[in-house]
Amino acid sequence: LRSEMLEAEKFRAIRDLTGIFAHEIRNPMQVVRGFLQLLDDPALPPRKKEFIQLSIEELDRANETINELLDFGKPAGGDNEEVEAGFQLQRVANLLHSYAELRSVTIHTERDADCWIRANPRKLSQCLVNILKNAVESMPEGGSIRAACSAEGDSRVLLTIEDQGVGMTREQLDRLGSPFYSLKESGTGLGMTVSFQIIRSLGGKVRVTSERGKGTRFAISFPKSDR
Ligand code: ADP
Ligand code: MG
């Protein structure tokens, strides 16, 4: 219980700090972006235009990171409603279609009908986006992902996301979900922290199995809603 309380303290501290930093950094960035757009004159030599474009892209990338930090700060839970988990999974897969295609990754979805759970659809999507994005990113040479939603017995709904990517060692798997743990050059290491937090807040359970060089499987189960 004591370690759980420390964990909650830690989350709160991170949340407060990220919120403050995000706001303070975002405003000047928007100003810089605006001026860069003004500088982007058609008469400029192509090389200079390219520098401006690159600067804008980098700013946008930084902004994405800030969005992830802000999402981290938002409290999970609250306004839950009846959502069909398979539909949400499909929606997220569609959302990431071009992100995956760009990396030669295809996402195959399978769904049972009527997998209703109680959840905040935005939070559930966020959770699934983070997991699916990692799955795509785990396959630098491309490959395929299987994303499935099925009934698990009478009382639970099971979502599985399987990739054929780089996989994780035992140690890496143990650290998965710790804030700021990332092996990526420009990763935030918050995606899994957020996803695990959301799953927990929805009464879900998550099991991750992984094998180095073979791939990773996320199995998330939620209580079925008795609608
Ligand atoms: P980020 O993606 O920003 O690095 P995450 O919290 O989403 O942060 O993930 C943390 C780390 O966990 C990743 O950097 C990666 O090393 C590892 N990881 C997560 N999902 C997978 C996966 N499907 N396959 C292999 N490694 C993964
Ligand atoms: Mg990630």
Description:
This protein has 227 residues and is α+β, with helices and mostly antiparallel strands. The chain is built from 7 helices and 7 strands, in the order ααβααββαββααββ. The strands form 2 sheets. The chain has a 5-stranded mixed β-sheet. A two-stranded antiparallel ribbon has the order 1-3. Helix 5 runs antiparallel to helix 7 (191-201). The protein is globular, with a radius of gyration of 20 Å. Magnesium ion binds at residues 130, 133-134, 191.
Taken in chain order, the helices and strands follow as HHEHHEEHEEHHEE
Please list the strands of the largest sheet in the order they lie side by side: 2-4-5-7-6
Instruction: Determine the fraction of residues in helical runs and give it as a percent range.
Output: 40-55%
Our estimate of the beta-strand percent is 15-25%
Work out the number of β strands.
7
Catalytic activity: ATP + protein L-histidine = ADP + protein N-phospho-L-histidine
Subcellular location: Cell membrane
Main location: membrane
EC number: 2.7.13.3
Main features:
transferase, binds magnesium ion, EC 2.7.13.3, two-component regulatory system, 227 residues, transmembrane helix, single chain, alpha+beta, transmembrane
In a few lines, what is going on in this structure?
Helices cover 51% and strands 22% of the residues. The protein has helices at residues 2-39, 46-73, 85-95, 97-101, 121-137, 170-175, 191-201; strands spanning 81-84, 105-111, 116-119, 143-152, 156-163, 205-211, 215-223. It has a five-stranded mixed β-sheet.
